[in-house]
Amino acid sequence: MADTLAPEPVTLRPSRSRSPQNKWTTERIVFTTLNTTFLILLAGLMLYPLLNTLAISFDNGQDAVRGGIGIWPRVFSLENYSVVFHMSTLYQAFFMSVLKTVVVVATNLFFTSMLAYALSRKEFIFRRSITLIFVLTLYFDAGLIPNYLLIKDLGMLNTFQAYWVPTIISAFNLILLRTYMKSIPDEIVESARIDGAGEFRTWWQIVMPLCKPTLAVIGLFVAVGSWNSWLDTLLYNSNEQWLSTLQYELQKLLSSSMASGMNGSGQAGGAAAAAAGAQGTTPIALRSAITMVAAVPILFVYPFLQKHFVSGVMIGSVKG
Amino acid sequence: MTETTVSKPATAASGPEAALPLAISSRASRRQDHKNRKAQKKTAKDPKRKITWDRIWAQRALMAMAVPLLLYQILFKYVPAYGWVIAFQHYRPGLGSIWNQQWVGLDNFRNLFTGVNGRQFANVIVNTLGQSLLSLIVGTIGAIVLALLLNEVKNLPFKRVLQNITYMPHFLSWVIVASLASVALSLPSSGGFINQALLNLHLISHPILFLTQPNYFWQIVAGTNLWKELGWNTILYLAAITAIDPTLYEAAEVDGAGRYRKMFNVTLPGIRPTIIVLLIINSGWILSTNFDLPYFLGNGLVSQRAQTIDVFVLRYGYQLGHYSVAVVAGIFKTIVAVILVGSANLAAKRFNQETLV
User: Fold this and answer.
1) Hey, what's the torsion of the CAs at A213, A219, A221, A226, to 10 degrees?
2) B118-350: what fold?
3) Across the interface, do B61 and A119 touch by the CB < 8 Å criterion?
4) B130 burial class (0-12, 13-18, 19+ CB within 10 angstroms)?
5) Distance of residue B321 Cα from the nearest chain A Cα, in angstroms
6) Other C-beta atoms within 10 Å of B331: how many?
7) Radius of gyration (Cα) for chain B, nearest Å?
């Protein structure tokens, strides 16, 4: 094998941008123009639905039902948002979403990294079998109703624990983190050992700080997943209003407007719609405002974290 | 070692072959390699690898870190399978524990596959496969095309902005995406800009209520999936494109290849392994995708084309209380999914590529 991998002789090859083919020929100008136009149109298509919803959410409720709003509100109004943040259910749901996301991220990172550390130690005798048991859970899913029955039998229905206890480890992130930890030179861990650090200390004080970039990526993915989830609320915690989350409230609003709005009038049923009527806004405007409130935390952190997200995908594509 | 004579020529060739990840090595040589490796491992680890109480005690700290979490995982991922027994019962939640129920043998299986739910469930399977396949095909083609076009953008800041915008929908929740889609597809008076655009272009003479037309439903699901995941799916293709040896492009240029020739004869073949592996792996999840969109966008008028397995389990099983039948559907899905994903991963490994799972 070694001889096939012998280093190639270093050649100075001209970079592509300097190759003679790259001068501005007619063909190139036409192609670049068409390509740029197409990509800009595509980007517009990606942004338009959100900008449209944003415009409707800042539009006067009575005016919004007339339709035809593009990406700029016709009759500017903050009424919809003030209704959203004065509806105690939505206000509560927002904070429950935040709390749930924070707890899920913290517990998930703590336990996943602890286990990943143990599984990354070469001397650990059970590491293969334990890894296998975790990897198999990527394929095996007992199903929605059996999972529900388990949560019910554990007495966790309608409790906050139902949000975070079942998700403290995700097998996929475990493998990512273990793979990363394996790449840390043994000498670092050995020297900690010689200085008298036990396993817990080595994990928490030596290995964890070295894993910060990967932990950040995993934390981001977990946070996005937790913030965006609604099925756990529907299955486990739908009977307790204080445990409701923003996505779940939005889901209820969407479902009721889908059920009653099929005539195309855009009328929504349900409590939120009744509240909308009483407060002088309309279901479509209110729904737009709630959509924006649910989307904005993601849209705000997104530009700053984009490069981490991408590097997370790249880590994920390398098998451990 | 009885095969040594048979596999000898192949073994001799296996060195350079292994260096070319895409070359197809013969089975015999692989088996031989495998044997050699196994033998090596055995001799290397035998004296140290034995599991004894002494070693377990010496590693008690690592045990304390791992074993509770192992038990946790078994409890939350494997133990729920005890719920599968209600597939053989007429389960009524009111009766309390699952050991208190009436046993009905295979009645639920018969009902689901051939009996009262037979036609509905056959339809559900067709919908699941149809929506997933359509989404997969449209999504893959879209992502490849976008990756090729993005690759031609030489202005890096512009490229980065485009990438940021197209990745963004991936991070929005399905609730939000479904909400945006339902507005986009409604009548112009409710903000339905798709109808508005089609009217303005004179492609239709009067607005269409897309979400009440069963025949549009699969396309709507595929289109919405495309909108959400298009940019995100380009990441791996773009990475594969950057890994293509630049000298191949230079050689093609010397041979007089233009932009399109290079695209079709260098770039596409270069990312072909990535395309194949991703297609194989994604087709393993074909029964498990498509839950949120058909759940939110499906309604009574389109349910014959909208209901997928997961939606069936949630709506018919959980919400209407037909627990036992829904568990049968869930078992069916899990078993098929395990087989599909397992064989998809094996197939991907045959391409000698690193797999995602």
Assistant:
1) -170
2) MetI-like fold (1.10.3720)
3) no
4) middle
5) 10
6) 20
7) 27
**Structural domain spans, chain B:** 4-19+27-74, 118-350
Interchain proximity B55–A21, CB inside 8 Å: no
**Radius of gyration of chain A from its Cα atoms, rounded to whole angstroms:** 26
Question: CA-based angle A204:A206:A210, to the nearest 5?
Answer: 100
Residue ranges of domains in chain A: 84-320
From A75's Cα to the closest Cα of chain B, the distance in A is: 15
Give the Cα separation of A114 and B63 in Å (integer).
11
When scoring B17, B55, B76, B313 by the number of chain A Cβ atoms within 10 A, the one with the most, hence best to mutate, is B76
Q: Which two tokens stand for residue A79?
A: 């009424």
- Smallest CA–CA distance, residue A124 to chain B, in Å, is 7
Which H or E element spans position A241? none
DSSP output for A39-99: HHHHHHHHHHHHHHHHHHHTB-HHHHTT----SS-SSB--HHHHHHHHSHHHHHHHHHHHH
List, for residues A208-234, the tens digit of each pLDDT value: 998 888 888 888 889 989 999 999 999
Asked whether this complex has an ipTM greater than 0.95, the answer is no
Fold annotation for A84-320? MetI-like fold (1.10.3720)
Question: The tokens of B290 are what?
Answer: 């498509």
Using left for φ > 0, alpha for ψ between -120 and 50, and beta otherwise, residue A127 falls in alpha
Query: Helix (H, G, I), strand (E, B), or coil: what is residue B89?
Result: strand
**Of A137, A144, A199, which has the smallest distance from its Cβ to B330's Cβ?**
A144
Per-residue pLDDT of chain B (357 residues; tens, 9 = 90+): 333 333 333 333 333 333 333 333 444 455 555 555 555 554 444 445 677 888 888 888 888 899 999 999 999 999 998 889 888 888 887 777 777 778 888 888 888 888 788 888 999 999 999 999 999 999 999 999 999 999 989 888 999 889 889 988 998 999 999 989 988 888 877 778 888 888 889 888 888 888 888 999 999 999 999 999 999 899 889 988 988 888 999 999 898 888 888 888 899 988 988 888 888 888 888 888 778 999 988 888 888 888 999 999 998 888 888 888 899 999 999 899 889 888 888 887 777 555 443
Residue found under tokens 């709005």: A261
